[in-house]
Amino acid sequence: MAYRVAIVGATGNVGREMLQTLAERKFPVSDAVALASARSIGREVSFGEDDILKVQDLATFDFKGIDLVLSSPGAKISAEFAPRAARAGAVVIDNTSHWRMDPDVPLVVPEVNPNALAGFGKKNIIANPNCSTIQMVVALKPLHDAAKIKRVVVSTYQSVSGKGKEAMDELFTQTRGIYVNDAMVQEHFTKQIAFNVIPHIDNFMDDGSTKEEWKMVVETKKILDPSIKVHATCVRVPVFIGHAESVNVEFERQLTADEARELLREAPGVSVVDHRVDGGYVTPAEAAGEDSVFVSRLREDPTIENGLAFWCVSDNLRKGAALNAVQIAEALVGRPEFKKAKKAA
Ligand code: 2RA
């Protein structure tokens, strides 16, 4: 069976990666439709090696007959269009923050909580978690199953592609400008991003944390276990693609670094690269374009009881967004609830 698939936000960083990932993984697509806001109508996007799709207007598109929507258009747009697509019978897999904490919307990382997909029919919407949450929970899941996590303290090093194409251009322009002595252009970041780091991603909340940090807290609880305490500091770094995280975990029982390494080696979606020599770890430049969550620098933390620290890196546009969405689609179409809903339609 093949499916009619619409990509919403098809001209953005994640939308283009979704098209690429669908083609690479040979997801059974009978018909692909590229949708975006009115200003992108008529632009062309590639789908696989041979197909070019002309972008159509999201505002007027009729979703009748579409089976699946993969979307990454911005939270406000998603709030408006997703229920419209769902009413027309499509299942929306949405990458924005709008639906993630809705109790009637599953928030899914297929390696971690695939069974949450059973609830997709409540709204016909499934949420894709935030990029920084996805890579962390993929690495935490096998460790939590083995030794039950009490608390996580994480610091992120997030690439500019998480903020979109214009943000990538700003890093490029500022870097070049510094070398050739051009005036500094600063539109998309609150401070200079070239040759700098910025401890601020998304809006500030009343308690002094940022929304990106809040997302890591509440999404980890929803996906993995509500009893896990998470404290996050999210930082933007002058890297184009690939988010890195320094993760410190406190468990209920002791888990040695060797045990953790063995568990992670067996875990789906994880690649362990952990050699205690120069270069024996993975950096964002090496993770870009790859599907895995890479775990390095595993070591016990003797400053707390049952403490463990590690470094993890992943391509934020792939596992952090497009790949996770396509994996959700793959898992969904294999589920009996989905097949039953399709038959009844
Ligand atoms: C970022 N978390 O990196 C966002 C993207 N979802 O800014």
From TrEMBL:
UniProt: substrate binding residues: 158, 236
Residues where NADP(+) binds: 11-14, 39-40, 161-162, 316
Involved pathway(s): Amino-acid biosynthesis; L-lysine biosynthesis via DAP pathway; (S)-tetrahydrodipicolinate from L-aspartate: step 2/4; Amino-acid biosynthesis; L-threonine biosynthesis; L-threonine from L-aspartate: step 2/5; Amino-acid biosynthesis; L-methionine biosynthesis via de novo pathway; L-homoserine from L-aspartate: step 2/3
Family per record: Belongs to the aspartate-semialdehyde dehydrogenase family.
Assembly mode: Homodimer.
Enzyme class, UniProt record, top EC level: oxidoreductase
Source organism: Roseiterribacter gracilis
Listed NCBIfam families: asd_B, PRK14874.1
Binding residues annotated for phosphate, in chain numbering: 100
PANTHER family referenced in this protein's UniProt entry, alphabetically: ASPARTATE-SEMIALDEHYDE DEHYDROGENASE, DEHYDROGENASE, PUTATIVE-RELATED
SMART domains registered for this protein in UniProt: Semialdhyde_dh
Protein's GO biological process: 'de novo' L-methionine biosynthetic process; diaminopimelate biosynthetic process; isoleucine biosynthetic process; lysine biosynthetic process via diaminopimelate; threonine biosynthetic process
Protein name per its UniProtKB record: Aspartate-semialdehyde dehydrogenase
GO function term, MF aspect, one: aspartate-semialdehyde dehydrogenase activity
Coiled-coil regions listed in the entry: none
Enzyme Commission code(s) on record: 1.2.1.11
The keyword Ion transport is annotated on this UniProt entry: no
Role played: Catalyzes the NADPH-dependent formation of L-aspartate-semialdehyde (L-ASA) by the reductive dephosphorylation of L-aspartyl-4-phosphate.
Catalytic residue list: 131, 243
Keyword Oxidoreductase found: yes
Domain spans labelled Semialdehyde dehydrogenase NAD-binding: 4-120
